[in-house]
From TrEMBL:
PROSITE patterns: GATASE_TYPE_1 (PS51273), PROKAR_LIPOPROTEIN (PS51257). Catalyzes the ATP-dependent amination of UTP to CTP with either L-glutamine or ammonia as the source of nitrogen. It is an enzyme of class 6 (ligase). GO terms for biological process: 'de novo' CTP biosynthetic process; pyrimidine nucleobase biosynthetic process. Its EC number is 6.3.4.2. This is CTP synthase. It comes from the Eukaryota.
């Protein structure tokens, strides 16, 4: 196994994840098989309990892992399927060491950060690197490891020490360290400053790690003399100083790296030059350029709770982008805080209320994404009602599906108090209820998580046609509540069709409203499996329908073209 370690210096938020994924893409383009590991030095066991407000979206894997959103970047860029073990946290490492200690596995020894924690980190990395993630058999050629945080953080110290030991044990030819750093420019003088990078490289060296390459983030391309300085003071060959300057979209990053021969430097360090092919990035180039040249914008209303931080819905945004590009459209997302649509807001903040409704009315389609808790729920119900009544294409994801069921029960069945048990435990008409897969009384781990199968009840529904599969689809889940099986009969009689169910037939997975141009609710999260070049079927359906092109598309597909 060959390892490429990505560390970061100077400041956080440099786009280390994108850099690491892009390096993976370039290596893949050279014909190598690539896997990846993300290290998050925080104490949480996983991202499951972290607020999207603070940390961005919780990404969900096939195996039910709730992980850092960077893993989403890896899956999308490298088109791989990762496991929860590909995300290492301090919490997981300590938990495994403490479990061993309780079992008496350390045979009376004093259990310490060095060597026990560091050994656990090394063992974890070496065993996870071997898991195939690209659908082929046997381990990948290269494992890209991204160390979260910035070098010098107290909490990343055990990881740095473990990685230092790993670099030594796997040997020179199998380890390549790329340090991502920032080259700021000071306003008045306009000079590119290398000193922060010098300091962070010095810090890295003091901890026993020597960078082979530097990936320097900057607004403008690096000047030759900046590169020369960096090379001299950081002890890194000039050819190995890469520059990731600002680009119009992140798909340019692999191209930028290839143009600077990053692959040559990495392959040389890893002694892989003889087996690697010249990088083939044709599809990436095409996509990046198409993206740059899109002019026709499609207006999408995103009605959610966490609209202040767009990273909260990162995968949904990416999935919209993938679908739009497939239709040669530019996504123009209007973020609507659901609570701004509510009647109360008309009193308390009339301007926000008017602006929210204006955006909604202006939109060509509406998306209500997943969420937890009751904030904004009334606004989401209004958005679903608006889309249903006005024939505006609507996609409800997870909470968004539950919302459309509540709305339908209230407006069409006349059950004014219909609700989800999540928002009103005493509702007389619980149309959405708690349906744990395991125990009803045990509170921990009650979420339905990861990949589950949906069986289409009829091949004659838009969803199955879009998925090009008359029988089933496997998508990822993350929820506790579900449509109450007892109300399916009345809802269906009133026109709302549940066209996708789980294998038991008790869990509703997909709803559609026949006669509406596109009104689809799904209990799963299709956004997690969308890829550049392979857009998620339902996002594609939403966008096509926003432009009135869905039917023509489905007819074309049915005819096999
Ligand atoms: N809060 C809802 C549930 O737990 C929806 C969850 C979601 O949208 N991911 O079922």
């Amino acid at each position: 196994m060959k390892y490429v370690l990505i560390t970061g210096g100077v400041v956080s938020g440099l786009g280390k994840g994108v850099t690491a994924s892009s390096i993976g893409v370039v290596l893949q383009a050279c014909g190598l098989r690539v896997t990846s590991i993300k290290i998050d030095p925080y104490l949480n066991t996983d991202a499951g309990t972290m607020s999207p407000f603070e940390h961005g979206e919780v990404f969900v894997l096939d195996d039910g892992g709730e992980v850092d959103l960077d893993l989403g970047n890896y899956e999308r860029f490298l088109d791989v399927t990762l496991t929860k073990d590909n995300n290492i946290t301090t919490g997981k490492i300590y938990q495994s060491v403490l479990d061993k200690e309780r079992k008496g596995d350390y045979l009376g020894k004093t259990v310490q950060v060095v060597p026990h924690i560091t050994d656990a980190i090394k063992d974890w990395i070496e065993s996870v690197a071997l898991i195939p993630v690209d659908g082929k058999e046997g381990p990948a050629d290269v494992c890209v490891i991204e160390l979260g945080g910035t070098v010098g953080d107290i909490e990343s110290m055990p990881f740095i020490e473990a990685l230092r030991q790993l670099s030594f044990s796997v040997g020179q030819d199998n380890f390549c360290l790329i340090h991502v750093s920032l080259i700021p420019v000071l306003g008045v003088v306009g000079e590119q400053k290398t000193k922060p990078t010098q300091h962070s490289v010095r810090e890295l060296r003091a901890l026993g790690l020597t960078p082979h390459l530097l990936a320097c983030r900057s607004a403008q391309p690096l000047l030759d003399n900046t590169k020369a300085k960096l090379s001299q003071f950081c002890h890194v060959e000039a050819a190995n100083i890469l520059n990731i300057h600002d680009v119009p979209n992140i798909w340019h990053v692999p191209l930028l790296l290839r143009n600077q021969n990053a692959h040559q430097s990495i392959l040389k360090q890893l002694n892989l030059l003889s087996i690697a092919a010249p990088p083939d990035l044709e599809a990436w180039t095409r996509r990046a350029e198409t993206f740059d040249n899109l002019t026709d914008s499609v207006r999408i209303a995103m009605v959610g709770k966490y609209v202040g931080l767009t990273d909260s819905y990162l995968s949904v945004v990416k999935a919209l982008l993938h679908a739009c590009i497939a239709c040669s459209l530019k996504p123009s997302i209007d973020w609507i805080a659901a609570s701004d649509l509510e009647d109360d807001t008309a009193q308390s903040a009339p301007e926000a209320h008017a602006a929210a409704w204006k955006s909604l009315r202006n939109a060509e389609c509406v998306l209500v994404p997943g969420g937890f808790g009751d904030r904004g729920v009334r606004g989401m119900i209004l958005a679903a009602k608006y889309a249903r009544e006005n024939n505006v294409p609507y996609l409800g994801i997870c909470l968004g599906m539950q919302i459309s069921v509540i709305e339908y029960a209230r407006s069409i069945l006349g059950l004014e108090k219909a609700n989800s048990h999540e928002f009103d435990e005493d509702t007389p008409n619980p149309v959405v209820i708690f349906m744990p897969e395991g125990s009803r009384t045990h509170m921990g781990s009650t979420m339905r998580l990861g990949s589950r199968r949906t069986l289409f009840q009829t091949p004659d529904c838009v969803t199955s046609k879009l998925y090009c599969n008359p029988h089933y689809v496997d998508e990822r889940h993350r929820h506790r509540y579900e449509v109450n099986p007892d109300v399916i009969g009345v809802l269906e009689e009133a026109g709302l069709k549940f066209v996708g169910k789980d294998e038991t037939g008790k869990r509703m997975e997909v709803l559609e409203l026949p006669g509406h141009p596109f009104y689809v609710g799904v209990q799963f999260h299709p956004e997690f499996k969308s890829r550049p070049g392979k857009p998620s079927a339902l996002f594609l359906g939403l966008i096509l329908s926003a432009r009135g092109k869905l039917e023509a598309y489905l007819t074309r597909h049915q005819n096999g073209s």
